[in-house]
Specification:
Blueprint: E1 29-31, E2 38-39, H1 46-50, E3 66-67, H2 70-73, E4 76-78, E5 85-87, E6 97-98, E7 107-108, H3 110-117, H4 122-133, E8 161-164, E9 170-172, E10 181-182, E11 192-195, E12 204-206, E13 213-214, E14 219-220, H5 231-237
Parallel strand pairs: 1-3, 8-12, 10-11
Antiparallel strand pairs: 1-2, 4-5, 6-7, 8-9, 11-12, 13-14
Length: 244
């Protein structure tokens, strides 16, 4: 039986339907680790070529439908707020912590996520930061509307979520800023920031207004993805490569 964290949500509903590197779909492999991401395996595939995706740079003959990305293999993940890499190893010196929603692949520094969850109360913010750093579970901001602070109801059209690809901002459809324009609504000179049909269930995909769109690729600057580096480099430097 598939696991779920909300009524009607299955475990498989939360794997990325697009590549974590380039935001394009096509032939993808999904990570069986904690991050729920999907990747183009080779830059030679049609969809990877369309989006100039560097991919995982594996030979086509090594294509697998499932894999374990190096972030998950080495327990090193990016904070979904500041994008800095940190250890997610629960056994020692944990730096970034995963949202406790069973099908959420986002990791956070305690300070970064506490600042979003407790925006107006510095005392509560510090207390929450300490609790998260001590390993207490938390649900990240992506699971509540950033405008009205209420959860999603996928059965009601206005209360379905539109989720940002670049940060933990989620909106009910009725709460979306007017400047976030869907592809099917856009005129010739409008900047497209929202799409239907890219995510499973009834959610919309957006780039929220906090992120500037690069006109050359029609997306905000791509996130830094860490993989393809030796374990010694990872452990000593926490370094990776920028795929912009």
């Amino acid at each position: 039986m598939a696991s779920s964290d909300d009524e009607g949500e299955t475990f498989h509903d939360h794997f990325d339907t697009v590549c974590a590197i380039c935001d394009n779909g096509g032939e993808l492999a999904i990570c069986e680790g904690k991050c729920f991401r999907s990747f183009h395996i080779t830059p030679d595939s049609m969809s990877a070529h369309e989006s100039s995706c560097e991919s995982l740079c594996l030979p086509p003959k090594e294509f697998l439908k499932k894999l374990k990305c190096e972030n998950c293999e080495y327990s090193l993940h990016q904070c979904f707020v500041c994008a800095e890499l940190g250890s997610s190893d629960k056994s020692s010196n944990t730096e970034v912590f995963q949202c406790s929603s069973a099908t959420c692949g986002h990791f956070y520094h305690p300070k970064c996520v506490a600042k979003l969850l407790q925006k107006n109360d510095k005392t509560e913010r510090q207390s929450l930061q300490e609790k998260i750093a001590a390993g207490e579970p938390f649900v990240c901001p992506a699971h509540k509307c950033v405008v009205c602070n209420q959860t999603e109801n996928e059965k009601v059209a206005d209360l379905q979520f539109a989720v940002c690809r670049r940060c933990p901002n989620s909106y009910h459809r009725k709460c979306l800023p007017r400047d976030i324009i869907f592809e099917h609504q856009a005129g010739h000179h409008d900047e497209i920031r929202a799409w239907d049909g890219l995510l499973r269930k009834a959610r919309a995909w957006i780039y929220c207004l906090e992120h500037e769109i690069d006109p050359e690729v029609a997306t905000p600057t791509r996130p830094i993805i860490y993989f393809g580096i030796s374990l010694s480099e990872v452990q000593s430097n926490h370094t990776g490569r920028n795929l912009v």
